[in-house]
Automatic annotation (TrEMBL):
SMART domains: PBPb (SM00062). Residues 34-264 form the Solute-binding protein family 3/N-terminal domain. Keywords: Signal, Transport. This is Amino acid ABC transporter substrate-binding protein. Gene3D superfamilies: Periplasmic binding protein-like II. Belongs to the bacterial solute-binding protein 3 family. The lineage of its organism: Bacteria, Pseudomonadati, Pseudomonadota, Alphaproteobacteria, Acetobacterales. Pfam families: SBP_bac_3. Residues 1-22 form the signal peptide.
Length: 339
């Protein structure tokens, strides 16, 4: 019994000491010296090209974080803009290494489409936006209205489910891209538009001619957990993507930022020592250098820094953290223990 207890106590240490076998995706990323990341073609705050043509946003930052973890350099990313029609094909075909573009995680995408979910980096919900002049104060007032929506999205399915559940009729106006949907809405072709509430806020701030003339209705008709996806069959790569996100969340909880991460390596806190690679073994477990998380935080920052930079009160989007706050501040962001 004493021998069994000793072995059981040693298992976590043995697991951390064993190196992960490099999967084909990581091998491919290392061979080309570049991460290929599938992103949204243009949603402000998440992934959109700036005046220099460089992608910026929460999802773009996460792509850079993966590159920092896997390659030690956050700049070694090639961003591939994808649409609602091409995003899953790009991942399935191997055109991109990871999809990080406002993708809702669902059962069918996990199973029949053959993807692995790698954490949630934004908790959202589907909403509606309407002109303020229409005096629409609640979603139920959209009975008999025309509503712009994107094809092949969870938004299109949710709209139909919601209308049946509420026993009202809406007329979907299906447009092939976010740009087309926004143009149709502004031209008056539809009475309202629907998609994730965060995207509505981004569109109102960056794409509408008079943002203050439009209101986002208070109801949320769905749960939309958004996060990165990778292909089935490469668990090592899924682990790298998942734990990169977890490290960014954990860093915020521990108060580790881009500005103080080097100083924090001197901390005596064992949790910080494990995260920053001072205590060895956790990089080896992922098939990465021991300082992988240190590089993520030093080059990109923690989750809260990325959120504030692109979506928070200091950004044009001005979103409250809400559900995307840390678990100990009333939100849902919770990192699994790094042990």
């Amino acid at each position: 019994m004493r021998v069994i207890k000793t072995l059981m106590m040693s298992l976590p240490l043995l697991a951390a000491a064993l190196p992960a076998l490099a999967g084909p995706t990581l091998e491919g990323v290392k061979a080309r010296g570049q991460l290929v990341c599938g992103v949204n073609a243009g949603v402000a705050g998440f992934s959109a090209p700036d005046s220099k043509g460089e992608f910026q946003g929460l999802d773009a930052d996460f792509c850079r974080a993966i590159a920092a973890a896997a390659l030690g350099d956050s700049t070694r990313v090639r961003f591939v803009p994808t649409t609602y029609q091409t995003r899953f094909v790009a991942l399935q075909s191997g055109e991109v290494d990871v999809l990080a573009r406002n993708v809702t995680q669902t059962l069918t995408r996990d199973t029949s489409l053959g993807f692995n979910m790698a954490g949630v980096n934004f908790y959202d919900g589907q909403g509606f936006m309407a002109p303020k002049a229409a005096n629409i104060g609640a979603a139920k007032q959209l009975d008999s209205a025309t509503v712009c929506v994107l094809p092949g999205s969870t938004s299109e399915l949710n709209l139909g489910d919601w209308a049946r559940r509420e026993k009202i009729r809406v007329q979907p106006v299906v447009l092939s891209s976010m740009d087309e949907m926004t143009a149709a809405y502004q031209s008056g072709r539809c009475d309202a538009m629907t998609t994730d509430a965060s995207q509505l806020a981004a569109l109102r701030a960056s794409a509408l001619r008079a943002p203050d003339d439009h209101v986002i209705l208070p109801e949320r008709i769905s749960k939309e957990p958004l996060g990165p996806m990778v292909r089935h069959g490469d668990e090592e790569w899924r682990d790298i993507v998942y734990w990169t996100l977890s490290a960014m969340i954990e860093a915020e909880e521990m108060g580790i930022t881009r500005a103080n991460v080097a100083e924090m390596k001197n901390s005596q806190d064992p949790n910080i020592q494990r995260l920053l690679g001072v205590t060895p073994g956790f990089g080896k477990a992922l098939g990465l250098p021991e300082d992988w998380a240190f590089q993520v935080i030093r080059q990109v920052g923690n989750y809260g820094e990325s959120f504030e930079r692109h979506l928070g009160s200091g950004s044009p989007i001005r979103l409250d953290r809400g559900l995307n706050n840390l678990w100990n501040r009333g939100g849902l962001m919770y990192a699994l223990p790094l042990r």
